[in-house]
Each structure stands twice: as C-alpha cells, then as structure tokens.
TrEMBL record, chain A:
Keywords: Cytoplasm, Initiation factor, Protein biosynthesis. It comes from the Eukaryota. This is Eukaryotic translation initiation factor 3 subunit L. It comes from Actinidia chinensis var. chinensis. GO terms for molecular function: translation initiation factor activity. The lineage of its organism: Eukaryota, Viridiplantae, Streptophyta, Embryophyta, Tracheophyta. Component of the eukaryotic translation initiation factor 3 (eIF-3) complex, which is involved in protein synthesis of a specialized repertoire of mRNAs and, together with other initiation factors, stimulates binding of mRNA and methionyl-tRNAi to the 40S ribosome. The eIF-3 complex specifically targets and initiates translation of a subset of mRNAs involved in cell proliferation.
Automatic annotation (TrEMBL), chain B:
This is Eukaryotic translation initiation factor 3 subunit K. Gene3D superfamilies: ARM repeat, domain 1, Winged helix-like DNA-binding domain superfamily/Winged helix DNA-binding domain. Pfam families: CSN8_PSD8_EIF3K (PF10075). One of its GO terms (cellular component) is eukaryotic 48S preinitiation complex. The keyword Protein biosynthesis applies.
Amino acid sequence: MAAAHDYDDGAGHSQPADAYDPTFVPDSAKSFVVHLYRHIREKNVYEIHQMYEASFQTLSDRLFKDTPWPSVDAVAPFVDNDHVFCLLYREMWFRHLYARLSPSLKQRIDSWDNYCSLFQVVLHGVVNMQLPNQWLWDMVDEFVYQFQSFCQYRAKMKNKHVQEIELLQQYDQAWNVYGVLNFLQALVEKSMIIQILEQEKEGLEQFTATDGYDYNGGSNVLKVLGYFSMVGLLRVHCLLGDYQTGLKCLLPIDISQQGVYTSVIGSHITTIYHYGFANLMLRRYVEAIREFNKILSYIYKTKQYHQKSPQYEQILKKNEQMYALLAVSLSLCPQEKLVDETVNTQLREKYGEKMLRMQRYDDEAFTLFDELFSYACPKFITPSAPSYVEPFVNYNQDAYRLQLKLFLYEVKQQQLLSGVRTFLKVYSTISLGKLATYMEVDEPTLRTILMTYKHKTHAVDSEGKINSNADIDFYIDDDMIHVVESKPAKRYGDYFLRQIVKLEGVMNEMDRIKLD
Amino acid sequence: MGRELVQKQQQSAVSYTVEQLVAVNPYNPDILPDLENYVNDQVSSQTYSLDANLCLLRLYQFEPERLSTQIVARILVKALMAMPAPDFSLCLFLIPERVQMEEQFKTLIVLSHYLETARFRQFWDEAAKSRLIVEVVPGFEQAIQAYAIHVLSLTCQKVPRSVLAEAINIEGLSFDKFLEHHVVNSGWILEKGQGKGQLIVLPRNEFNHPELKKSTADSIPLEHITRIYPILG
C-alpha cells in the first residue's frame, strides 16, 4: 500500500517549520529511543511492536506534527551509537518526513543512501534482531513508495531549479531502477525464502506457522524482508506495466491460503490489489474477480479493528479502489455468482448505476471505464532518467496514459460482446441468419463477433491452459447456435466437510457438560 | 550480484543458456546484447521465449536510448504468433508510446486488432500489404493459421468449407491438401452439407461440446479431507 500519505510532490524543496532544531531532543523522544533500543536488544518483539505502532504515532502527533524528528546524530549518544539502530531510526525519520512534510531532493537522495546502508547490513547477515512483521513490511512498502515518488518527482522537469537539475545529474544512481530491483531481488535470494517456503510444504521448515518469527534465538529480519520483497517486486513490476513478470515474482507465495503476507493488513491488501490488477490487465477476469471479492469481504468484516491504526485511511482508500476494479472486471466479464452477498450489496450501492451504463458500450460507457480505471490504477512510473537537454518537458503522465490507452483499446475490442450476450441469454438455439438480422449485421460479421466472444472469454493461464470465463456459452453446429448456460458449481463436498467438523465440535461440547 | 555471473561466464568457458542468464540476472543491463541475439535466434530457429523477450523490453524501458526498433518489431511479430496468449499486449505495455507511433508498429497493432476480433479476411489482406514486416519471420503464416483454427474449434462443431478457407487464407488445390493433412493427422472429418458445399467437422473439445466438460464441482482436494481425519479415525 502506498504508505500512509499522498501529498503533492511539488518542487519538494520547502523546508518545514520555522523553529526546527535538529539537535534538540525532547525528553519523551529521548525516552522513546532509549526504550526502543533496549527492547530491540532484549528481543522483546511485543514491546517493540507497541512502541513502533503506538508510541511513535502518539509522539509524532504530539511533538512532531509538522517538523521532523530529531536528527540521528542527536539521538545516537543515547543508544551507544549503535550502527544498525541508527539506520533503523533514520528509516523511520525519513518515513515520518515523507508522510507529513515534503522531502527535498537532497533528503530523497539521503533516504536512498540510508536504505542502501540498511539493506547492505541486512544482506551481510550481521543483523541479529527480531523485528515485528509490521515494521519489516513498512520498510519494503516505504522503499517502493519512495522509489515511485522519486520517479514522479523527477519526471516533472518543467520548473525545476538549476541546482535540482545539477543534483539529479550528479546523483544519478539514487533511486535508479536497477538498484531498486536488484536490492529487492537480492533480499529474496539471500534470504533463501523461496527454498524455505518449498521446504515448509514438506514439513522440513517452519515459517508460516510462526508468522516468520524465529523462536530459536535467530533473527527474522532477512527472512521476512526477503518474503515481503516478493510483494515489493510484484508492485514495482505493476508500476512499470510488466504484469506477467510481477505475477511471476509472487508465485512462491500461495495466495489461496493464509500466510505471512496476511499477517499484516497493509501487506495483505497490497498483495491482492496488485495481483488482481495484473490479472485484470492479462484478461484473467475470473481470477481478478475471485480475489477482489475475497479481500473486500475480508475488509468488510474486519475494518472495525483497524480504525485506530495509522493505516486506516489507506485501507479505506484501497478498499474503494478495489470496488472500482471489481466493477470494471464484472462489466467486462459478468460473473455475479462469484461475488458474495455483502460485497455485492456494497458494489451495487457504489457502482450499480455506473455498471448499468458501462454495459451499453457507447461513448459514455468508455468515459466511465476511463474514469474508474484512472481512479483505481496504480501510480504508473517511467523508470528512465530524463533527457537533460532543454527544453524540459514533463513526462510524469506518460506511463499512465499508455496503460490507460491500451486498456481502453481492449474494452473497445469487447464492445460488441455485451450485445450478443443479451441475445444468447434469451435463446436456447437460434440460427446464425436470424441472430444476424436481430443484431443488424451480415452473417460473416456475426461469425467474427461470435468468435471474438469465444476468444475473449477463454483466457489462457500462466501454464497455457485455456479456461472459460463465460457465464453464457454456446457452440455453432453448421449454422445453428446452441446456447449453454453454465450452472453454478454447487460445492456439496465442502459443505458436508464443514458440517462434519461442526457436528464433531458440538458433540465434544456436549460430552463435556456434566449433568447431575 | 548480476554482473558477476556475466563476467564469470566470460572468464571461464562455461556457457549459460540465455534462459539461465535471464533467470539469474533479471535486472542486469549487461545481458542486453545476448537478449538481442536471442531474439534473432528465435526468429531463425522458430523457437519462442516470452520471458527473455519481456526481459529485453524491460531493459529497453530502463534505457530507451539502447532500444532497437528492428528487434522490437521482431519481438512483436513473434508475440502475434503466440496468439491466443495475450503476449502482444504484454509487450505493448512495455513499449513507449512514441515508439508505438512509428509506421511499422502501427501496422502490427492493426494486425493484432484484426486477430483479437477474429476478422481473418481483413487480417490476411493487411498482412499481404506488410510483407516486409511479417515475412522475415519464418512460420508466421502457419502460426496464424493455427490460431484461426483454435478459435474456430472453440466456436464450432462443424464449419463450412468457405469459412475455414477464408480464415486460414488457403484456396483451391492447396486447401484440399491442407484438409487431407488434417483429416489424417488431426481427426478432421469432411461431410457433405445440405446443398451448400462441404462441411468440416472439427475435433471435439469441451468448448464446442460442453457436455465433455469434466465436472470438477464435486471433487474435493485431499488437503480438505485431512481436516476430518481425526474425526474419522
């Protein structure tokens, strides 16, 4: 999830608040770092988590609402100048700055340097801490967010100061796309997470069962960072429009099951949002619908527990975006049966009317597809450096425009399908000639429409297998169309299994009751 | 990281396949020339690797000044040949819009549009005008014919001779030969239609014969059964 902030990048050189003295450490801030440092040394994950989630927010709200936290140099003496702790502190320092203020270019570059040092330390295996999953997820999430933010910032070339241009050229390695991808990739590889997940399937290793924590005195940092980096890679690839590669990076995580990715709500949502979006772009609508439905119903049931979380706003925003994506997917592939009642009610409330209009595939409908896509898509980026030859042009919208254009192109190719579907719904058999007359086209054209229907509703999955996405299907025998309505697959088996387990529970319960 | 392997490869005589290079160095600009050569290999040896080609397009995306339009065109033709897979779109997602505005790419996009909307007549007409682009890639016609047959077999049990002929762009004697070949090798059956020429009975599959579709609805994966083992025991 794009960290808990969405500010305008602007010129990015405004310095906050008049009276910020980076060397001044208020007592409560001092006490915060001292305690956090102690809990980390004592590997007290519970306390670390409390301080990280609650105290840091409270203090930020109270003391550092519109100024940065004290500089790392000012707090270092209170934590034995501990190198790794200082890197962690700076990571939080920058995260707070990005969330509440506008980072300057110099600060963006410094934050990159800090990530480099931090990840180098982790990759060289000298970190022996045990950190909460929430924190480790936030690091990966923020790293990708700052990369995206940097690309957007850099692409706005107009109105940049001469000094900014010089700085950009001088530090051309900062937030370089190769650097970003290679760090994430290195974390995945060095952590051996893919092998760990493989071995876990055979019962040789425990990872998911302990939520990634290490109860044998080891550190969870590299392993869990490696794990979340797979989600980070999925997200970066989606930002680049490389959906196929993104999904490939996520393959080691089995998203049909609970896992460490579901242990942090932000990671859960980010994973499914990008997974669903990538599948939508790959025309695997059923897969997208299924996963959006699952997570939306999960958020519906659990969002009350997150009301106090700093991520709450982001959760709601992604929730809305995924409803929009679900509306788009269902308009292209009407499969209402895949959607739960609660989700469906919400969907109708939010997009019911728009979805009806989208079905018409006229100019207004395309405007709606455009609107929903633009609202709900990831913030696409152009990863390459600008040309530093004047005149400078902004190119921050290029990547988004291309993805939107190609998506609408796909919608246009499908525009006749909704009409043919309406007819198929009311006939069990109909001749080509008759349907052609009804649709006001000639027979050869009707054949192409029917074949397009088949092609577009039969998606090719990652193994090259063909899956039907059609709720209404048909076949042509000579010149007769025979309509086949797919019936909802009733899952009696699952139902009985659940009932057996339930009954057993009730019987155990009753055995325990002693009647005098 | 990445760069080390390339150097190692150059030092020692051990050679890696391009697929291995991509797997180990997905984000390494040094393998760009290898990937470009590999595109040409795929063209001449009639092989195909989407992953390697996406990797190359990614490197072009990162360093647009190294982009070769000739290579991109070849990748796109190969992607067309991979229909019904969505490879062509996957590639377009990564190619900057200003490159897509070039004439040869516009043509390829039109060709893809005709294939996506099953307008085979228009496709073959357009392809005939763009020989220079498509004919440099061996196997192009056959690949598109295979796609046309794929879509026809999803849709029809029986198809009139003329419809099939138009979709695959073969006529007369060569069409008879083509049919003969498929009768022997792919189980096609030729049937006399009711007064209006020959019908071709295409092989049965679960899409043109829905009754063949295996009902997976009531199969339960073993993992689910294991939940009730303790109870059964």
